Amino acid sequence: MMELNSLRQFLVVARLEHLSRAAEELHVAQPSLSRTIARLESELGAPLFDRGGRLRLNDSGRLFRDHIERALGELDAGRRAVAEATSEGLGAVRLASETFLTLTGPLAAYKRAYPAVEIELHWSPPEDMARRLRAQEVDLCVASQPIHAEGLEFVQLFEDAVGVGTPLDHPLADRTFLTIDELADQPFVTAREGHWLRRLLDRLFAARGLTPKIVCESDEHSAIADLISAGLGIGLVPDFARRSVTRAPGAWIPVDSPDCRRTVTLYWGADNRPSTAARLMRTTLTDWDWGTGEPQAPR
Question: Does residue 125 register a pLDDT over 70?
Answer without folding.
Answer: yes
